[in-house]
Amino acid sequence: MVTVGILRNWRLVRRFRQAPFLLQSLRTSSSNVELFKTALHEYHVSNGGKMVPYAGWSMPMAYELSITDSALHTRNSVSLFDVSHMLQMEVSGADSREFLETVSPIDLQRLNDGSGALSVFTNDKGGIIDDCIITRTGPQSFYVVANAGCADKDMQHLNDQIQRKFSGRDVKLVAREDMSLIALQGPKMQHVLSQGLKDDIKKLHFMESAVMEVFGVPKCRVTRCGYTGEDGVEISVPSCEVNTLVSKLSKFSEVKLAGLGSRDILRLEAGLCLYGNDISEDITPIEAGLAWCISQRRRKMGDFIGSDVIQRQLKDKPKNRRVGLISKSKRPIRQGVIVQDMDGNNIGHVTSGGPSPKLEAYVAMAYVPRTLGKQGTKLKLQIRNASLRAEVVKLPFVPAQYYVQ
Fold first, then answer.
1. pTM above 0.85, yes or no
2. Within the chain, how many helices (H) and strands (E) appear?
3. What secondary structure letter does DSSP report for 33?
4. Is 214 helix (H, G, I), strand (E, B) or coil?
5. pLDDT for 142-176, tens place per residue?
6. Which one-letter DSSP state was computed for residue 95?
7. Cα–Cα distance, 234 to 245 (Å, whole number)
8. Is the pLDDT at 25 greater than 50, yes or no?
9. Is there a contact between 400 and 224 (Cβ–Cβ < 8 Å)?
């Protein structure tokens, strides 16, 4: 039976032209389910945030700007996102590096203090339990950010691995539930943030991190990264201070509050994976096009969970690969749309899809046979009784604007 709460949420999706990634969450949520709330919940509501359930949390989908306008504003100026639902962890101890290199294929020997990298937690089949960013914060300490929807699963998996393989050794895992996380994203981020720092933000390049005072709020971890493809930072801030910080940032005319809807459009344009759509426990990092996350040392050593499967795929190439698709059709392309070759044979399905305000076209990601994954390959998208033309293109759809050395 469909509940009234679900119907209200579904109308909300239609009204604000929401990004497709929330639909399953909205369909399976009801009005009597108690949701977690971030420390900024009341701030969102008082500033017109349209709240929806996502990954067990009440999160803003959009504000005054439409989702499309919000995405364009991020590309041209700067937007402020609440991403406090993400899982923040600290891993420390003399054996912490070896532990993290067991549960993920990251090469921590290559990271200096204050630098990080994208990685994944893998299972015995080489599949992706979750994707994450791991930052070295000291000789024996690391800061890890993972997905909200995988938080319980991640903590269970990591603690299990500590008990099974590192029992009695020096590894400490702590979920930082006392910290909130906000993202300031867009080309004007540096101009805005620099006005509240004693430190020089220009010294931080892409995937570099430092603890600093931000607009008078001490002990904030500022990491130059994000989920939009634009220059930006994520700021881990004590939850007791996050409302103060966000209020100060919001006073800048360049800064607009943004929600999950525009964030999904931006990450899709940037060719970034969404866990549960584009990557899962049945998809390896090689199939997902994330082989670049695995250094030559880790490939050679093969001492991480699922390494035998991943090493074999690196050598023999996987059967399927993730590709980008673009279509000039005016028909929406959503998750689940069937992908066909030009002869009408089903070869895969769309994992993420939607409008690209930047390109003024529909874009999508899908897994297709490797032989049909070359740039320029013509394919078909089957939507109800219509067959739409699409073309394989290089990812990302919109070039990244990261602040690199």
1. yes
2. 11, 20
3. S
4. strand
5. 999 999 999 999 999 999 999 999 999 999 999 99
6. T
7. 13
8. no
9. no
DSSP three-state, residue 180? strand
Tens of pLDDT, residue by residue over 302-311, are: 999 999 999 9
Instruction: Say whether 308 sits in a helix, a strand or coil.
Output: helix
CA distance 171 to 152: 19
Strand partners of residue 275: 279
Residue (of 246, 105, 255) closest to 190 by Cα position: 255
CATH number for the domain whose boundaries are 319-393: 2.40.30.110
- For 3, other C-beta atoms within 10 Å of its C-beta total 13
Q: Tens of pLDDT along 249-263?
A: 999 999 999 999 999
Residue 112, SS3 per DSSP: coil
- Give the DSSP letter string of 348-401: EEEEEEEEETTTTEEEEEEEEEGGG-STT-EEEEEETTEEEEEEEEPSPSS---
Distance CA 160, CA 25 (A): 28
Q: Domain residues of the chain, as ranges?
A: 319-393
Q: At what angle do helices 151-165 and 96-103 cross, to 10 degrees?
A: 120
Q: Is 274 exposed, middle or buried (0-12, 13-18, 19+ CB in 10 A)?
A: buried
Nearest-angstrom CA–CA distance, 224 and 212 = 13
Take residue 206 and report the two structure tokens written for it. Answer: 């892409």
For residues 380 and 388, give the distance between their C-alpha atoms in angstroms, rounded to a whole number. Answer: 5
Q: How big is the chain, counted in residues? A: 405
